[in-house]
Amino acid sequence: APMLLTALLSFAFAAIYMVSVHLTLALASMIAIPLVFLLSVKLRRLTFPLSWLTQARQADVAVIVDENINGQRIVKSFAQELMQVNLLAKAAKKLQWVQVRSIDVSAFYNPLIENLSVLGSVFVWVYGGWLVIQGEIALGSLVAFNMYLMMIQMPFRFLGWMLMLEQRAKASAGRIFEILDTTSEIKDKEDRVEMKELKGNISFKDVNFAYADEPILKGMSFEVEPNETVAIVGQTGSGKSTIVRLLSRFYEIDKGAILIDGVPLQDIGVRNLHYHIAQVLHEPFLFSISIKDNIAYGRPDASMEEVISAAKAAEAHDFIQQTSEGYETVVGERGYTLSGGQRQRLGIARALLVNPS
């Protein structure tokens, strides 16, 4: 930005001086500016889709690399290393094509934009020399005029480079704002209910729900009393996990009603609802932080005694003590330094520490 500002100020200062010396000569020196402008517009139109494609292809390569690093045990256990290498090679080939195309466009247009300004120098020396011979301007003025012309040419040397950076930034920002500008479908009502404590009565009344066009729940009705333990069993894909997600209001039901202590789920504030519900997922997600911080994730202000108590209740305390730094041991990305059972116990301890209603 400072370099561009300096170049623009130099351009303005030099242009004013050149016009004051000789108007016709100044206009002749700037004859290439319209061509530069047209080429710049063309470059922008070509660069943006290529920049967007580059970002997309880089994302594809990153996803494949990430999946293979995190799923390396699965890849090796099924002897699919060659297949994954070929998959990565195909993604890299697509990225290579886009980047080569971008370089081709840049290599063609940037030299044109930069060197078109040289036409101005040619006109200055030819036409300016004739003016000197005719005695209309002094030789010293022509030399100074040419020096100022170099100051005018400086912005053009930055223009192609700046256009490339601008379009790449625009493409990157577009992909980011696709996520940032996405609005949540789950919204609180203005007169939402904030519940301090829950007794624990849960009612599903004629609940229907579908993922897109795939029906999952049809007319489901049941009731769970406070302090009652209920197990939901069924075939794979029958909607067991979906019931928990609907209860946490991760999705809106299509028909029917879900009530907690007689209050419709849609009337309860989402954050307030989540404060009263704790989940232990099939595959607990652990952050790349210490074991203590993972257990205390739902209650960052929990004391060490409370963390240890929750770990003991989940029968995780013994294996935590055997780790290199105990509760301060960093578990690594997604907790893959721990076994599946250990991750599950930490997930249980995290839910117990929250002590939901």
Automatic annotation (TrEMBL):
Residues 1-163 form the ABC transmembrane type-1 domain. GO terms for cellular component: membrane. Its main location: membrane. PROSITE patterns: ABC_TM1F, ABC_TRANSPORTER_1, ABC_TRANSPORTER_2. Residues 202-357 form the ABC transporter domain. InterPro entries: ABC1_TM_dom, ABC1_TM_sf, ABC_transporter-like_ATP-bd, ABC_transporter-like_CS, P-loop_NTPase, Type_1_exporter. Pfam families: ABC_membrane, ABC_tran. It is found in: Membrane. The chain crosses the membrane at residues 24-41, 116-133, 145-165. Keywords: Membrane, Transmembrane, Transmembrane helix. This is ABC transmembrane type-1 domain-containing protein. It comes from marine metagenome.
